[in-house]
Each structure stands twice: as structure tokens, then as C-alpha cells.
Amino acid sequence: MWRESRECNKQKNREVLLTFEKTPEFSQIIFEIEREVFEDRAWNLALLEEELRNDFTMVGLLSKGREGIGYIIARLIQGEAEILRFAIRPMFQGRGLGKILLQDFIREASLKGVTRIYLEVSEKNKRAYNFYKKMGFHEVGVRRDYYSQGENAFLMEYNLEVEAALADASNVGANHDLPI
Ligand SMILES: CC(C)(COP(=O)(O)OP(=O)(O)OC[C@H]1O[C@@H](n2cnc3c(N)ncnc32)[C@H](O)[C@@H]1OP(=O)(O)O)[C@@H](O)C(=O)NCCC(=O)NCCS
User: Fold this and answer.
1) pTM
2) 89 and 128 share a domain?
């Protein structure tokens, strides 16, 4: 269903493959990363399998050979996407792979007509919060007691139209010799 598949070109990330074409093996690969990253908050295999069977669900998987490196799971409905799960395995974090995965997801989602992307991130997950801010997401609300033990979540939004306009504006003059 999702036809994108490409090599990531960065030197450090050579041989890493990103695909948006769902296959039945994805569930098991993602399940193993889930357990490593989220431990007792990991989704179980049955839940993952059910989610991946959903026609509205888009999945991106980063892998190296048969080894899973990271993934993104989102639901696309009527021009909006909600990111449900997103992770890079700890030993591969900090190499720009999360950025590649998220940027390619945004591009793919845009081709499917998505104009807004939402996600919830725990108020305690500063690393992910900072990462999303850096990637152009903005905090648009708080979901109280979203997680267990009264942990709140920030609701974050990425507006593709606004970001595209900002990118256009920052390119104005980039290819011209300005008089000053
Ligand atoms: C959040 C996560 C996906 C980021 O992936 P990553 O591969 O480590 O991030 P990258 O190396 O691609 O970093 C991309 C950019 O974000 C920045 N960034 C990453 N972590 C950051 C932090 N803690 N604070 C500030 N900026 C940060 C990087 O500096 C980089 O910016 P640059 O391109 O200008 O150098 C990863 O840390 C992860 O899987 N965390 C555990 C699971 C999780 O929390 N998922 C989100 C649940 S909502």
C-alpha cells in the first residue's frame, strides 16, 4: 500500500533502509523495539497486529538487514494524522535517524493529503518533547492524567501548510543577489 522505500544517504546511516510498505513481519519487529524502548509501557503483539491491519494506519520502518532500528505508526483520517507510536532503538539514537524518519513520514503523509499532524508526549519525556519542538511541532494543549499515575501529556501539532509557507518565505532571496 505504501510504496516509498529508499536508502538513507548519511555516511553514518549507510545501509539503513526506510520503507512505508507494510508487511506482516512488521508487527514482530516493532514489538521487539517496543519492549526495548518502552518496557512496561510497550504495546503487546496482538494490539500491534490489529493496528497494522487497519487501512487508515500508516507505518514507517527503519531497518538494517533483518534488524529493526526504529518505526513510526500513525493513523491518517480526513487530512489529519495522529502519531500513535514513534521510537528509535537506544543504540541508534542521536544519529539523525529519528529526524530522517519523521521528515520522511511528514512528506509521505503530505502526499496522502494530510495538512495537520498531532501527537501526545508525556510531560516527563523532555527528550522527545525537545526533539518534536526542534522538528517544528508546537504545543497546542495539555491532556490531564493522560498516562497512569496522573501524568499529563502535551498535545503537539505540526501544520504542514504553515511550515511550507515558512520554508518558502525563508527561501525568498536565497537564489538572488540582493542589493544590500
Ligand atoms: C525521540 C527520538 C525518536 C529521537 O530520535 P533520535 O534518532 O535520537 O533523534 P535525532 O538523532 O534524529 O535528532 C534529531 C534532532 O533532534 C535533536 N534532539 C534530539 N534529542 C534532543 C534533546 N534531548 N534535546 C534537544 N534536541 C534534541 C538533535 O540534536 C537533532 O537536531 P539536529 O539535526 O539539528 O542535530 C528517540 O530519542 C526515541 O526513540 N526516544 C524514545 C521513545 C520516545 O520517547 N518516543 C516518543 C514518544 S512520544
Assistant:
1) 0.89
2) no
Residue 84: which of 98, 71, 96 has the closest Cα?
A: 71
Of the candidate ranges 52-56, 81-85, 135-139, 162-166, the one whose mean pLDDT is the lowest: 162-166
- Residue 177 CA to ligand 1 centre (angstroms): 36
Whether residue 178 lies inside any domain: the answer is no
- Atom nearest to 83 CA in ligand 1: 48
23 and 87 share one domain: yes
The boundaries of the domain holding residue 60 are 1-114
59 close to 21: Cβ distance less than 8 angstroms: no
Strands 153-159, 5-7: pairing kind: unpaired
Same-domain pairing of 17 and 80:
yes
Question: Which listed residue (120, 123, 151, 157) is catalytic?
Answer: 120
Q: Ligand 1, from 30, 62, 131: best to mutate by most atoms within 8 Å of Cβ?
A: 131
At 78-99, the pLDDT tens digits run 999 999 999 999 999 999 999 9
Evaluate whether residue 179 is within a structural domain: no
Residue 52 Cβ < 6 Å to ligand 1: no
